[in-house]
Protein: Transglutaminase-like domain-containing protein
Organism: Mikania micrantha
Amino acid sequence: MVARKFVVHHQDSDFDVDYDTEDGFEVFKFQLFSLTTVPPDEQKIIGVDDDRIVSDDADLVAISGKLRLVSINDENPQLTLKSDEELARFLQQEEDALMLQQFAVNEDNGEFRQRIRPYVDQVLLYEDAHRQEAARKTVPVEKLEEKALVALAKEGNLDPSKNEHDHAFLLQLLFWFKQTFKWVNSPPCEGCGNETTIQGMGVANSSEIVYGASRIEVYRCNTCSRTTRFPRYNDPIKLLETKKGRCGEWANCFSLYCRSFGYDTRLILDFTDHLWTECYSMLLGRWMHLDPCEGIYDTPLLYEKGWNKKLNYTIAIAKDGVYDVTKRYTRKWHEVLSRRTITTESSASNVLAELTRGLRRNLTSVISTLEERDRHEARELENSQHSQENDSLSLPGRLSGDKEWRTLRSESGSDSLSSSSCPVRVCADEHVSRIYNAFSPLISHLAEFSSKNKALEAIDTIRKVLVDLKKCPFKSRRVVIDSNLIRELLQSFNPMLDALSLKSKVETDGKIEICLADSNPVKASLALPVVFHALDDVIHNIKLLDNLSKSHLSWPLLKLNRICCGSVLASGEELPFGIATSAFDGNRLSKWEEPNGANGCWLIYKSMSAQVYELCSYELMSANDAPERDPKDWVVEGSDDGGSSWCVLDEQTCQVFDNRFQRKAYKHSHLGCLSIDRSSLESVFSEIRHLMHAPPPRHLQEHPNLYNRASPCSSEESDSTSSPPLKLAQTVATRAAIARVYRDLTAGPVGRRPPGEASRHPSR
């Protein structure tokens, strides 16, 4: 071990860092993150003495002890662009490819136009008011609107702008469509429902032709030999009824849905046999890629990088123009050019320009706006070719379609969209802390019953009331209750209602009305799922008791004063549902997912304040899917000196979870009042819940067995004989400790993803 002391200057502050150089430069950058909040992938470290950038492979023993840290985002927003040498090489490759293309292209026989023209007519169907109205009637609009607003609220945005709301609703529309529409490999037998085998093509009848089904696939049942027809409908109004098909039907129907809700929409035709959608995002100020078959959005390199597609022509078709957007979907333009052999580049441009002029013939009032958008997109597409790929983003192979079919097309790959360079995310979880605190007066009241069965009956009654509230339209939640038990519990139940942004009112006839307490109904929508999972935990803990009394008013039955609203950074995460903040949202159905967790993973948590807390206890919860992914071994570390040094607060090995959603508690009462609660650290998919506690309310301090009497303290006030306190302004664990120990301890089969097993992704 070689210990060094560095002085790091950042903005107007100097930070003293004592560091073990054997941990390497990457860990050093994470330590700087804990001090400065500049994420490791945005750090630029410069030696003060020689003014040279410190590279990632630098020898930490030899470099200057005085360093300067800058954020690349603040210093140079164009840092992601290629170097001059790379740019020159790219331009030369493009020029060479264009020259070779002149000799490779076939004679222009109209094939390029013929491939595009039918889709122009198809896209114009999306403008039909009857079709749009039919589409809107099939969508649970209020439910998707609620989900969109909750998704924004989880990011701390309770008052979104119209553009933010529209963007979030579009994503929820995509996720809903992914779950609603069905992929067809071969249709089941219409007689017995068993598997079928294709026999060939049939002739469309009149009822099929009406909806544009010019191609009819004919299948024979493998069991009863009955014939089943699979018409390939092109009219999206019919697809609203059938809700099935392959990528053509998926993109066609989803594009109609997007237009029906007012989004500028394009159908994207990939000449290498795929279709998807683009919508213009007013929030992003650009066109956004949406693939309904995969449930993935804004990931245009999915096909080239994830599916390993050899793209040639990618054409966007809209009501107001036809565009070549191939450059959005490739970073290998010179290779793509060599495959564009249907016609010359100039001929292709002329065809697209002619089609666009025809579509804009009656749009004279908005021509200038459309042309400005065209110019903006052209600049965007050109700039995209000169930017670096995000190597930290792992893109999945194709997931739609039969596995054998995908393999034959060479479109299989990894099974998750994940990132190994995650942004720092902020936990918007104050409502979770309020809910846990609100259980205190309620359980104290239940303890006065001196009957476990009566307490469970009361909780069941409360749960039914909350279920009825959750079923109500989210903008007008209201129930009226006539229950003596609720009337008896009302005073202790009111803090829970307040935590849920609800309120109660006793009417003149003695009935109790419960309704929204806040003008923003999303607060209740955000909180209600949390309280159900918290209630399940309370019920579980009460059932473990012989009887419920005030002597049981302690952890884990009560979880008080949870610290919230901290920032989180993870070793990796799956997008869009397995992000790191899912570990802290109080909802057991969400989780932090780390695809490479079997090799060691880590999670860093930083609180908003600079107070020092001591670790008291924590819980881990197994997640919803595979037992072999449950956490087996882990380490928790803390720092009380700004992240310069770390101390092991707890270490566990060979842990086993017998059930799904099972909590395992680890109590450290001698350490004070910080609790890390509900953590499902699956080796591959991990979910960590941190519940951090301060002193209990006064009405509970009289009980001698309370686990967390200590108050938040500074490092000077802490007992020097106990383990070091965990400073919440710093991290819970460093990458070095978690990754190194986890890697050493997961040598056995537990904690690894079985070879060849697909990931459990919420959207698939």
